[in-house]
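Render this sequence as a predicted structure.
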Amino acid sequence: MLRYGVCTWIFGGEPLAQTAARLARLGYDGVELMGDLNQFQPAQVNAVLADHGLRVLSITPENEDILHPDPAIRRRGIDYYLRLLDFGKAVHSPIVCCHGAVGRIRPVSTYAEEWQLYVDAVRQVAARAAELDIHVAMEVLNRYEAHFLLTSDEAVRFVGEVGSPQVGILLDAYHMNIEEKDLVSAIHHAGRHLRLFHVADSNRQAVGRGHTNFIPLFRALKDIGYDGSVIVENVAPGPDPFTALKGDDPIGWVETYLDESLRLMKLYEVVS
């Protein structure tokens, strides 16, 4: 049975207790916690979520660049991920997500060099993840946000080169809608490497408000035996996808989207 969670960043930094109360009322199982190590203390996170019957399903990272050719920038990013893994262990998260710097859409040096730097960096992160028994999920983004790991095929090749059982793939229906020729085939191709699945419709609104057909996607998840978490990452309507809260009554819109998404996803899980 799938577990359903929500990325906390879509609430724009509101106190975790408020977010937890909203998600518990809507019927979610947990959160994908924003990995702000200055904002959150493990004991606080554990207490707040326990009070609402929720858990940390995964952690999303801050915008560090672990494949930058500048050794100082790259080292800072790797050190951040190592600390993030320790934090993840303390809040009982089974998964820490990983990606390059969102917004960097071309290499600083060359594609080949940065690919190898990325592999080497993730191997270092994976070694620590193995010690802590945490999985690392490489997030597959889109060409407007990143220049690496844009498709399921590319991600499968990448985790194969990293060569660690701790490292798998995070697919996101919103990004897949932009980059994949066939969303169902992309899930099948990820197969046993799939560690996490994000959802938002084609317009990054609620499931059912865009043109993505989610029933075949949930059927594909079942085909590959996926029994992990499905994380909703809607944002309030309007431009600027990197800003969660915008426009009139953004929290109201986010809650509406989350309610609609959960209702439909539970239905799709059954009918698929």
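Summary. The chain has one domain: 3-271. Residues 105 and 144 are 6 Å apart (CA to CA).
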